[in-house]
C-alpha cells in the first residue's frame, strides 16, 4: 500500500501554477515575471493567483519577493508531475504513441485522472522511474529517483556514453533526434568537437555520425561508461541503467 501525496480539489489552473513554480525554482528562478512568461499570462494574474495560493498554504509569497512553494505546495507539484510522467510513459509504452506527441496529451489528462487509475497504470508499467524523455518520475511518496548524468556538450571525446535524458520539448526536434537514434538508452560517443563552441559530432551505435549544435548537445544528458570504446552493434548489450533496477 503506497501513500499518494495528493491534494484533492485543486483546479487545473492551480496545478499548472504549482508545476510552473516548481520547474522555475529548480532552475533558481523565482520571479513573478518568469511565471507569467512560462504560463503565457499577465503579471497581474500571477500576483492574484500567488496571493490565493499563499492563503491556501501552497506558496510563500509577498509583493516584490521571490516566490517559492511551501512543503505542501511542493508535494502537490510533485503529484501533478508524477501524473504527467506516468501518463506519458503509458501513452508511449502501452499505446505506442511517439515520444513527441505524449506531452501534449499528458498536459490535459494530468488534471483529470483519478489516483486509482493512475496507480493502475503505474502498476502495469512496473512502477517506472523515468518517462520516455528520461525525466525522473516522482514516486508515490514524492521522492525523486536519482541519476548521475551530465550534458553531452561537456562529455569526454571517444568515451562510450549512454543517453539518459533528452530535455527537448519541441516535437520536431524530438522527431529528428529519434530519427537519428538519440533517445534514452542509446549508446553514443563524441567523435569530434569543433572549436569556439562549435558543433559536436557524435557517432551513434549502429548508426551514422551526426553534428549537433551546442545548445542541443546541452539538452541531452548522458552518463559515461568507464573504460569502454563504442563497439559495433552486435557487441556487448548496453549496461542496464542502475537507477531503473
Ligand atoms: Zn511532458
Description:
The chain is 38% helix and 14% strand. It is of the alpha+beta class. The protein folds into 2 domains: 1-145, Winged helix-like DNA-binding domain superfamily/Winged helix DNA-binding domain (Arc Repressor Mutant, subunit A, Orthogonal Bundle); 150-244, Ferrous iron transport protein A (FeoA) (SH3 type barrels, Roll), CATH 2.30.30.90. The strands form 2 sheets. Strands 3-8-4-5-6-7 form a 6-stranded antiparallel sheet. A two-stranded antiparallel sheet has the order 1-2. The protein is globular, with a radius of gyration of 20 Å. The site of zinc ion has 4 residues, from helix 4 and helix 5.
Secondary structure layout plus pairing:
Layout: H1 12-26, H2 32-39, H3 43-55, E1 59-60, E2 68-69, H4 71-93, H5 102-109, H6 115-124, E3 150-151, E4 160-166, H7 171-180, E5 187-193, E6 200-204, E7 209-212, H8 214-218, E8 220-225
Antiparallel strand pairs: 1-2, 3-8, 4-5, 4-8, 5-6, 6-7
This protein binds zinc ion.
Zinc ion (ZN) is lined by residues 84, 88, 103, 106.
What topology, given as strand order, has the largest sheet? Answer: 3-8-4-5-6-7
The whole-angstrom Rg is 20 Å
Spell out which ligands are present: zinc ion
Q: Look up the CATH topology of the largest domain.
A: Arc Repressor Mutant, subunit A
Order of helices and strands: HHHEEHHHEEHEEEHE
If classified by CATH, what would the architecture of the largest domain be?
A: Orthogonal Bundle
Mean pLDDT: 88
With helices defined by DSSP (H or I, 4 residues minimum), what is the helix count?
Answer: 8
Strand count: 8
Which residues form runs of ≥5 with pLDDT under 50? 228-245
Count of folded domains: 2
Largest sheet data: 6 strands, antiparallel
Tell the overall outline.
globular
The CATH C-level class name of the largest domain: Mainly Alpha
- Percent in strands: 5-15%
The rounded distance between the terminal residues' Cα atoms is 20 Å
Helix content: 25-40%
Q: Decide which structural class fits the backbone.
A: alpha+beta
- Name the CATH superfamily assignment of the largest domain: Winged helix-like DNA-binding domain superfamily/Winged helix DNA-binding domain
Amino acid at each position: 500500500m503506497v501513500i499518494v501525496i495528493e491534494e484533492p480539489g485543486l483546479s487545473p489552473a492551480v496545478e499548472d501554477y504549482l508545476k510552473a513554480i516548481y520547474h522555475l525554482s529548480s532552475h533558481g528562478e523565482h520571479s513573478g515575471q518568469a511565471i507569467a512568461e512560462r504560463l503565457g499570462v499577465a503579471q497581474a494574474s500571477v500576483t492574484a493567483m500567488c496571493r490565493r495560493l499563499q492563503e491556501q498554504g501552497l506558496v510563500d509569497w509577498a509583493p516584490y519577493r521571490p516566490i517559492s512553494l511551501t512543503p505542501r505546495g511542493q508535494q502537490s507539484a510533485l503529484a501533478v508531475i508524477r501524473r504527467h510522467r506516468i501518463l506519458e510513459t503509458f501513452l508511449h509504452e502501452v499505446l505506442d504513441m511517439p515520444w513527441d506527441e505524449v506531452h501534449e496529451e499528458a498536459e490535459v489528462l494530468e488534471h483529470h485522472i483519478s489516483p486509482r487509475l493512475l496507480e493502475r497504470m503505474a502498476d502495469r508499467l512496473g512502477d517506472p522511474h523515468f518517462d520516455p524523455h528520461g525525466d525522473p518520475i516522482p514516486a508515490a511518496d514524492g521522492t525523486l529517483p536519482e541519476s548521475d548524468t551530465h550534458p553531452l556538450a561537456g562529455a569526454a571525446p571517444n568515451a562510450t556514453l549512454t543517453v539518459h535524458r533528452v530535455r527537448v520539448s519541441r516535437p520536431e526536434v524530438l522527431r529528428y533526434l529519434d530519427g537519428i537514434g538519440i533517445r534514452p538508452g542509446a549508446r553514443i560517443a563524441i567523435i569530434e568537437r569543433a572549436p569556439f563552441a562549435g558543433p559536436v559530432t557524435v557517432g551513434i551505435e549502429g548508426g551514422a555520425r551526426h553534428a549537433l549544435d551546442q545548445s542541443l548537445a546541452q539538452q541531452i544528458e548522458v552518463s559515461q561508461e568507464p573504460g569502454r570504446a563504442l563497439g559495433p552493434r552486435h557487441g556487448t548489450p548496453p549496461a542496464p541503467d542502475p537507477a531503473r533496477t
